[in-house]
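For reproducibility, we list the full input for the adenosine-5'-triphosphate complex.
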Amino acid sequence: MSMSNLDFDLNTLVKILDHSSDEIFVLDKNMKIIYVNDACKKHYGLDKEDVLGKTSLDLVESGYWTPSIFPEIFEKKAPIAVKQKTILGAELLTSAVPILNEKNEVEVVVTTAREMQSYKMIKAKEESNGAADQVEDPFAIITNNEKMKNVLKFAQKVAATNSTILILGESGTGKSVLAQYIHENSNRRNGPFLTINCAAIPGELMESELFGYTAGAFTNASKSGKKGLIESVEGGTLFLDEIGDMPLPLQAKMLQVIQDKKFIPVGGTKEKTVDIRIIAATNKNLAEMVENKTFREDLYYRLNVVDVKMLPLRERTEDIIPLTYNFLYKFNRIYETNKLITEDCLDWLAYYSWPGNVRQLENLIEKLVITSGDVIGIEDLPEGIFSHGKQQIEKTSPSSLNEAVEQAKREMVRTSYKINRSSRRVAADLQISQTQAAKLIREYCQDLQE
Ligand SMILES: Nc1ncnc2c1ncn2[C@@H]1O[C@H](COP(=O)(O)OP(=O)(O)OP(=O)(O)O)[C@@H](O)[C@H]1O
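The corresponding predicted structure, in tokenized form, follows.
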């Protein structure tokens, strides 16, 4: 893209550079730092103002990073990449590229420094003897969607209280992840977090599993009785997943636990008190179940005091690509691979409707990491991904100007796509933006993928 196509001013350009997660800094011919972006703060703890105007030698001598890269680049006048360590302990992969003038002298040096995340992970894995999972925050919820960010903010607020929370949302949207997130953000975080899937425990077992039983409560009961799961969560959080599947008789007992923190074990007479917080989740329409008398109204209202809704993935499409990268990273680590994914593949993933939500995306990426070659391409994607919104394209002679334009557009996009096979190259070929190219490819070239 030529500069004349850029529709923004210098301030916007500076803003763009400041949002780069890589550090960018530029030196003049005297090794004086003439530009640096905001990433210098996270690498060295220095503000731009502390860096600009200094020479790189000043900063190396003050111990901000080591080793120095610049004397060598002025000598060799060729790009160099080295590993550096900063005063804050960040490990960087730093690449410097000299720009030479007509006399073959170094005019400026453009340097980028990127944190070596994967390197850190490998090291941590070696040091922790395989327990590398601790390095990553397992409770992080990835989202770029404003509504979901508000959900997280709200969840943080209610986490600090002791109130019961009902999480609603389709299957696979991350309800369990949110429940765990609330627990980790609450002052119960050092207590236990226990998930009970109400759909998975048979109805007749659920009562004794949850509430425990006294000695001789029923045939085959253990002689000494048994503590229930609810008691084992003392001081922590109980997550009742699929609460809509809890049998009606048990719902009354659960209501008492929520309201009074009290219950009576099966076969017992003495009430027990517990200090637990309850989070419940469902993908069912509880209000409808109340109407049909399959869910207790009083329990519904008690649960529904604080409710949180997880959005389906199709309503937060901006999360698809960050989640894809996250899962690719995760499974590359698990399977000790280094798979990459093509832009076109990402385009198709972003276009798909994901009826199984985040879980479906996660499962697909795991499968692709296991089964694809070094680069995951369109040919690795399952058929179903392309059938969403599929259009039947038939060739007919145009009966109006609009139709003729449409047909010509389609032909151009299809011809370009057959040759170029990527939205970036089609964009360059047809002189349109990549977003526009991706949209047109989706519209006109679906059959070329199959
Ligand atoms: N925002 C997210 N960031 C990272 N991983 C996520 C996110 N949301 C969901 N996941 C992952 O997606 C999978 C499905 O999430 P989860 O089990 O929480 O969904 P759910 O809504 O509870 O599903 P169900 O109703 O079927 O129990 C999990 O493996 C979870 O780790």
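The mean pLDDT is 83. The two ends are 31 Å apart (CA to CA). Both points were considered when choosing residues for closer inspection.
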